Each structure stands twice: as C-alpha cells, then as structure tokens.
Amino acid sequence: TKPAHRMHAGPAHIGTPRVASPSKNAHAIMHAPPGDDHSNVMRSMPERDRDFTPVTASMVDRHVLARGSQDKVVDNTNRKGKEERPDPIAPTPTCTSSILQEDPQNLVRRASITSDSDAIPADVNHHRVDEPQAADGTSEQVVRHHPNKARGQGTLGRSLANIPSANTIGIPTLGSHNQHDCRESKRSSRDIGTRINQIIPEGGFVGNLNNLPKARFNFVPHREVGLMTAVYLDEEFGMPCISMTPAGIIDTAECIRQMQERVGKWASAPPKEKVDHEPYIDQHTRSVPQAAWSSRSIDRQNSTGKRAVIPGDATHATAMTKIPSREMGIRACRAGTYCKHDAERSNEQVRGSRDEILVTDDHTEAGDTIGRVEPPAISGTQMERHVGKRLDTPRGVTSPPVHIQNFPSGYRPSSGYEGTNQIADSVHNPHTLGTEDHLLDILGGHDTEAVTESSPIEQDMLIRSPESQLGSSQIPRSVRGKTKGKTEKSARQNGITNITVEVMYAAREILGYS
C-alpha cells in the first residue's frame, strides 16, 4: 500500500461518485469519516456544474463508532430512498472506514428490505484498486443491474433502431475536458449519420439503461472508465466495441473508419445504410485541423526536434505521445502511464514514438526521472507541472489529475478534429512561453522596475541589506519594481533608512501588496 499523496490516481472511494454523480436518478452514499467527503466540492468547482446529483456523506465519527456505524448507513440509505427515490443507491466505504471491517453486502441487504430504491454496494477493494478502476467497476455494476432487472420484468429493449446508432460509454465527471469531448463526439457522430443511443454516465438517465442493447456498437473514448461495461455488453448481447480515442488527425480518421466498418458489418443493416465516410474525413482533415500547418510555421519551429517526458493516464499519455511524434515533429524521450493495469497495451500503442518507457503510479518517481533526464519539455499531469516549475522547464498539463485552471469555461475539446488544434496549442505553447521568458531576461521587456525606480537622491538615503536584496531578486520581474517602490515609500514614511527583510515584510502588511 502506497501513501495516497504520492500517487497520480486518487483513492477508490472517489471513483464511485465520478459515475453516480453525473448520472440522472442515481445516488452514491459515502460511508466516510470527516475529510473524505469532498467529492461534491470537487464536482461543483472544477466542472462549474450547478445541476448534478450530490453525494451523501454518511459520517463516521467517534460518537458513531461508540455505538456502531452500521445502523447509520442503513438509515441514510432509507432516508435518501424516500426523499429522492433514486434508482439505484450505491453505498461505498472509503479506505479509512473500510478498516472497520464491516460487511457492505450485509448493510445493503438490510437497507434493501425497507428502502424504496434498489441498493447496489460498490464492489471495489479500496486497498487494491485506484480511482479510475473503481469508477470503471461501478459503471459496469450499474449497467449490469438494469438490463438484468429489465430482463426479469420483460422490458429489455433488443430491437435495433432503424438508423445506425451507438452508445458512448465512459464520460465520467472530473475528467480532463470530458464534457467538451462528449460534445465533440456527438457533433461528429451526427455529421456522419450515426445516432447516439445512450451516453453514460454523463447526463444519462439510469432508467434508460435497459435500452443499451438497441445500439449497434459501443464507443469507449477513454479506456480508464467504460471498458469493463463494454466488455460486459459484448459478452451478454454481442455488441462490438470501439475503444479507440479519436485524438489527432490520424487516429480521428481511423476511429471514423472503424465506426463505418461496425455499421457495415451489422447483418441487419439495409443496403441504403452502407455509407462512405472518406469524403467526410478528407474534408475535415483539410479544413478543420491547423496543427500540421502551424507546426511548420516560423514561430513554432523552435519546438520541432525537441524531446519531452510524457506521463499520464493510458488514454492521454498514449495520445500525447503519438500525436506530437507523428504530426508535429516532437518525440518523447520517456513516455508511459500510471494505469499499470493497462500499461502493456499503452506501451504497444506508442511503440516507435518514444525512446524509453515510463510506467509508475508514484508521481515522485516520475519527478525523479524528469530530474535525471532534464528534458526540454514536459507534458503530463499537474504533478509534473509542479516538477517543471521547480526545474524551470517548459511544461503543459495534458492528462488527469489536473488543476482547476485546466477546466476551462470555454469550449476546448481534446478529441476529434477540433481537439487536434487544442492539443497543438498545449504542446507548442510551453516552448513559446519559455522563449518569451528568455527574451524578457535579455531585453527586459514588460519590466516595470525602471518606471518605478526612485530618484537618485532618494536612493542614496536608503541602504538595503544583502538579505533584502536577495529577497527582491526572488520577486517576479513583472511586479519587482512596483514592490520595491512601495517598500521604499513605506520606509521613508516611517523614517527608516536601512531596509531589511523585516522592513519588507512590514511594508507588505501595511500597504497590502504581495
């Protein structure tokens, strides 16, 4: 067992809410001590979503422990069943509360007797799986429950739609640009004449899961969440699956061709539905993506031929390794995924696009590797962004886990033809900004220090200690002059001629600058 703060992926108890929260009429109850119940804040802040299903926290504190916590879980399950009538309710423990060694199956059985809703225990081992694996398993559990329930009631939908249709599986909350990728996927599917039957879990109504078999195939854009569900639907209903991420010009075209093949191979498809998507691919390859052309422009020539370290989840690390190598002239010197359970396939996908493999779920190990390699650029998670900042290396965040600033309010997909442009910017901009910082040091551009300098007479009256001069040199150049001027102004007002570090801190407190 590794400390959670050293891992790229979050703990398993966050995985279940990532599936239940974006679903309609599903509810997750987290059996957790204070401090583990932060999923609602994570959903409302980064996603900026006002309409989502909150997660109920069944708190475990010392008072509950004194009399036993099992009754509280049952009571909360029954209460939510009466208040919101969700279907289903998914109680899940956290790593901390699972130490109590309570039997989740027994708690769910007790709650199901009196609850107005179906209760499904999150069947994940919180000490052996991480957040993406838990989300993947919970998605498969919920999907398995409803078709089985519909089959028993005789309401399972198996008749195919008259037009080609697909299920998009694996769009959970708190992903990197997931909602934007979902919009891009829907737009592309509409353009090629493929109707979206169901999208789960993002915005999907769980009561409609019994209609999943009506689609002709399942599309899993992100392998971390949704692959187990697609495998179950293939084994149970014979529904083929496309688990290719449409990122970059080449893979987007290949994904569309696979969709065309799936529709054409379906035995019941009438001849009139056999369409050719090559004109669509040719038109959009020429008109929408600007990545290939912009990579050859003068302002981005400094990126060509560079090497980068690219860690991340299996989906994004694979895409961000192949796309720069094949389409932008940037090769990965180290690339790999922290999703060890899918590392073999990911490594096979990027064969020929990277020099060496980097597979670790410990971001401190990834940071040590970056420190030894000293790459010209880093493209990874927010952890690698911190490493790049310490090493003063150009860096970009291209894979979850990400910071709140990487959840843009505007439309910025990372998949499809439009996503190719966004990926190009995320790859090239760190190099460009690095060049800009270099020019600032050489030319002093955008520096207000000279503007706010005191007059020579005033400067002669003030003496700066070596410690304060060192402290001033550590202030960003963009605000260094302003900060120095305010400190000197405060010193003169208080009759101080010797500026020390203490005087600088006191001026900051008095004048209210940082």
From TrEMBL:
A GO molecular-function descriptor: ATP binding
UniProt key word Signal: no
Keywords: 4Fe-4S, ATP-binding, Chlorophyll biosynthesis, Iron, Iron-sulfur, Metal-binding, Nucleotide-binding, Oxidoreductase, Photosynthesis, Plastid
SUPFAM superfamilies: Helical backbone' metal receptor
Domain Light-independent protochlorophyllide reductase subunit B-like C-terminal: 474-508
EC number: 1.3.7.7
Function: Component of the dark-operative protochlorophyllide reductase (DPOR) that uses Mg-ATP and reduced ferredoxin to reduce ring D of protochlorophyllide (Pchlide) to form chlorophyllide a (Chlide). This reaction is light-independent. The NB-protein (ChlN-ChlB) is the catalytic component of the complex.
Stated name of the protein: Light-independent protochlorophyllide reductase subunit B
Organism of derivation: Selaginella moellendorffii
